[in-house]
Each structure stands twice: as structure tokens, then as C-alpha cells.
Amino acid sequence: MTEQDEKPFLQLVVCAAGVAAGVGKLITAAQERHWEVGVTATPVALGGFFDAGAVEAQTGRPVRSAWRTPADPRPFPAPDAVVVAPATFNTLNKWAAGSADTLALGTLCEAYGLGVPIAVLPCVGDALAAHPAYRASLERLRAMGVRIGAPYTGEADETGRRPDFGWERALDLLERPGAGS
């Protein structure tokens, strides 16, 4: 058994939000907490929201975004936990509705069915967060046992400074059973 096989596997789903460029911070934090990490990105996120080459070098695994064929080997082991960060309005609403039209959404729908712990860090602006579909989606996801962190709007303070995304919050949610908002 290799060292990679001995560590629990964290499946990280990355959505298309500006803060996704900092996903390496979450990978580093997870690795420091002895997780092996694999990244699945939404198709739009993979299109330039983060450096996929740097993530592949950091994790030692390909970044996934497209379905594999039945003949292709599975690039990741079964996840011990899943983190969605940053989680966008679109992904959260489609996931709550049971849509699996991308690999990222299929991964999330399947993880729930397998009983895998899931932590989410929403990254949704106030205007979209006010939409009733979004609020209903969060309620449904919470009812499914998904651990949802405080939302990040990216709004600057009075000095013009944007707050840190706080990537490690996702790992904290996983470590505290029943945690989340």
C-alpha cells in the first residue's frame, strides 16, 4: 500500500468564482491535515478561473472536468469527504435540484447517495443570495446533511479591502460533525 492509499481522500469541487484562483490554499491546508486531494472543476472554472497545471502539480493528480469513458481507469479513489469551494449560485441550485449534467454535479449528487460527508463554502453575491430559489436550495442541502459555511459575498469593506475567503473553514466543517449553518 502506498502513502497515498493510506491517507483519506478529499474530493474538492471547484466552481467558477474569482476566488477560485486561491484554491491551492485549501489543497495545502488539506494536505497539512493529512488528506490526499483530487480536484474536479466545473467546466467554466476549468476555463481559466484557477491554474489547473499548478493544482495538478500540487495534488499529483489530473484536474477532472469531463466524464471518463467506461474503458478509462478511475483517476481518483472513492472520496472519504467532499468539499465544494467556492460554491456558486448555479452549482448550488442545480445540485439541490438533483441535476447531474456536469461531472462536478454528478460527483456531488453521487456523494450524497453514498453518505459521504460534504462541506460547502458558498461564494454568492447578495443580489443572487436574495433569490428564493437559492434560499430553498440551501434549505434542501442542509436537510440532506450538507455542512454549509457562512456565505462569502466578496464585498469590500469601507477601506476597499476584500475579506479573505477562509478556505480552511471547509476542513473545519468536515471535522465538526453536524457543523455548518
TrEMBL record:
Q: Name a Pfam family for this protein.
A: Flavoprotein
> Molecular function terms in GO for this entry?
catalytic activity
Q: Which domain of life is it from?
A: Bacteria
Which segments constitute the Flavoprotein domain? 12-106
- Name the InterPro entries on file: Flavin_trans-like, Flavoprotein
**Protein name, please?**
Flavoprotein
